[in-house]
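Quick one, T. Sequence first:
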Amino acid sequence: MPTFKLDGQDIPFEPGDSIIKAAYKNGHEIPHYCWHPGLSVPANCRMCLVEIKPAANQRAMMLDVVEWDPKLGDYRPRQKPKLQPACQMPATENQEVLADSSPHVKEARAHVQEFLLLNHPVDCPICDQAGECKLQDYWLEHQQTGKRMKDEPIHKPKAVVFGPTIVYDAERCVMCTRCIRFMDEVAKDPVLDMRERGNLNEIFVAPNRQLEGHYTFMTEHVCPVGALTTKDFRFKARVWFLRTAKSVCQGCATGCNAHLDYDPRYNKAYRYRPRDNEAVNGYWMCDEGMLSYRAAHEERITEARVGNRQATVEAAVADAKKRLDAGPREGIAIVLSAQHSLEDNWAFRELGTLLGAKAFYMAGAGTGYADDILISADKNPNTAGVRAMLPDVRTFRQLLDDIRAGKVTQVLAVGGLTERDDPEDATALGMLSTLVVAATHEGALSQAAHVVLPSSSWAETSGTYVNKQGYAQVAEKAIAEQGSSKPAWHHARALAIAFGVEPTWTKLKDLRAALAPATNAPSSPTLAASATGASAPPAPRVS
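Structure tokens:
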């Protein structure tokens, strides 16, 4: 692979890479505002200026400038190298680039910062970007001087409602145009643009339109300062109190990689942010996915139930055993869930095998809106994982038919959601002599259940999910378990012990060890790996 030198260090690059992109992929940040790896290159912020040394057979590009000489008490002419934007300059083999090591670059960065801050309001205490703002970070790294302009700053509109989800503060805006380019190039809805010139610039929404659709949250995410904020997160938390877990979006089968930000003091999830993965979701998430963090707390089952009464988990397990013992084992069926992790599903499949169950079914959320950007019609994160684990798994529709035919009389299920909430389905489920459900959220199965065991959400326990491309991706544990909830695989173990059979797993690592040799698909690649154009593997086989 060809290389160039950045401050004396060899940086490998691929044909077509710009200097800044090659540095970014190799873990070196050249300061920038307008550049984004997933968007076009406007080169308008000038923060990424670098000095490019001429080759042996080339003349250096120089600029004639004047500078103040305190000894002469006057200005004197001098020359300095012409700096180039790293976002626009292609990387070439044996090129020598100076960034942090060039005094000219350092001076330019300080001047750019000062110009950007001339009219910027000092409202950091109430700005939601405080703590993760590029203006703050770069001032400390590249300027560290006070404001020299004493004139009244230019005032612009504040708290402008762009649409149902986004609020705009024009005084904070640095005109990077990321939001404009995202809506045009990725969301395919060019509803934003820039008007006026110079320090009167501001972003505006097209007449008779508002910023809406399925990707509006991304305009806030790509904003490097606090100009765009979401109504959902606005004034809800201070980012320095938040911690982050690497997660996987549960909203659909795309399996977008995400950062789940939570406050450990309150055991509360506050937001999702996209986690870069070019092979799966690129740099983006949809609005519905960004808001799906709420499912960590909303419509949750956090306590066990026997009938309509709250009970302890131990009492619920004992009642489940009593009910299942009263019926024939050949009538037992296992219902897996496309909503739950591979670990949960594998444990319930093993439980069914230990109990002699022959029939296995799959339930999950129904289909919904889809597009050709990110959103999948399949609203479950692990459909591919369950089908890989049991290729001949039957559908929930078939379960209802088998219940009506008397082939299934008792059901052990993981997950409470079904494709629809229909009275006819409830009637069929009501024909079961026993329905035991380990569920995270309320749904048709949990509402019809005789015994409900509270299952941890994806945010409360680590789990593996296989997306529609066949990538096996791990969502890390973030918040602590709520109420009496435990991972569904934990409940499967408790049920197995209650029936007097010894399960093969005790901890999560046991389940992972059992799954690993049977899973052909690798984990979803990192940004660096996927940038090489790696293709998605086939769905894994889990036996």
